[in-house]
Amino acid sequence: MPPLLMCLFYLSEMSVKNAQPNFSPSQVSEIMKRLYNLTASGIRPLPSYDDQNLYVAPTEGGEYVLKIMNSEDSKNPTIIELQTHAMSFLYQNGLPAQTAVPTTSGQLMSLEEIDCGYGCQKYLVRLLTYLSGVTISKVPFTPKLLYETGRTAARMDEVLQKMVHPHLSILERENFIWSLSNVCLLEEYMSVLDGDPLQEVVKSVIDQYKNSVIPRRSNFRKCINHGDFNDLNILVQPDDNHGYKISGILDFADMNIGYYINELAITIMYMMIEHPDPIAVGGPVLAGWESVFPLNKDEKDCLYVLVLSRFCQSLVMARYSVMLHPENEEYLMTTSRKGVKILQKVWELGKENVEKFWFDHAAQLGV
Hints:
Helix content is 44%, strand content 16%. The chain has helices at 3-16, 25-36, 77-92, 143-161, 198-213, 260-274, 282-290, 297-324, 329-332, 334-349, 351-364; strands at residues 40-46, 52-58, 64-68, 100-101, 110-115, 120-129, 134-135, 222-225, 234-238, 244-249, 256-259. β5 (110-115) and β6 (120-129) form a beta hairpin.
């Protein structure tokens, strides 16, 4: 392991090890009563990577999600407030995002100092509206649903680009490892793939990113990206035609100022993970996207490499996270296990073949 990565390993281990909250049911009940004057009768855990998410059904009625931020992210209340504002702005513009419920004193979040097993630490707490549905990963990926997914992603970015907020500049996030504008940062983590044939593929993708994406980036249209429009952050529910419709957009923690084409690439990549024929995903998602926001020539020419780049980000950072937290390997490697085979297949097929399939299929769907 190179010195920089060794340093990152120990710094991350020290700062993140006890950052995830673990509030007890009694602590949750006390917070619900004190902050929201609600009596928590039904409480159950919801999935989360490094926060604590809880479904809460008060006796007074309604359904909510109590979101308790980890102690590290809780040190940056401005970006959490901005994410909360973005969710509300999307909801006001007709997109199915959660909104924050004010406390009895009118605040959308509260910084709570509580000992949940690691000594007293400060955690930002928000009560969010509960969105019904199941994650899109649990239903069949029909072309119609994939089209709707692409269309929703484009609508989301168009709305976010109109958002006004005094602190938008903090979304620049120049060193944010998950931004598709920062793919070259992966080079600092490559040692996690030492001895794995996948390392050469990842290095080649990064080289293509440097040679084909970066020189064209000045012609990409900028916007605010959700940044993680994946199969676990999209909720669906049955529609009136024996199919499914999108009923929820979750998790705005990766929001960053990027490019429209980045969001499309991220969406295609994560839909490929859940599809039995991953290459078939690109056409319908692309068609849905372009029904709202047609791509220009340079954006089209970089789509293939950007999709591969997102696979590389996911695979490399999953390996790195498992190194830090081996106890979470099953959760952390969910995308990675499927993604390795798909990345290798898409890489072997090559840019020309994959793009032709995607764009020809999209054209057949009406673009």
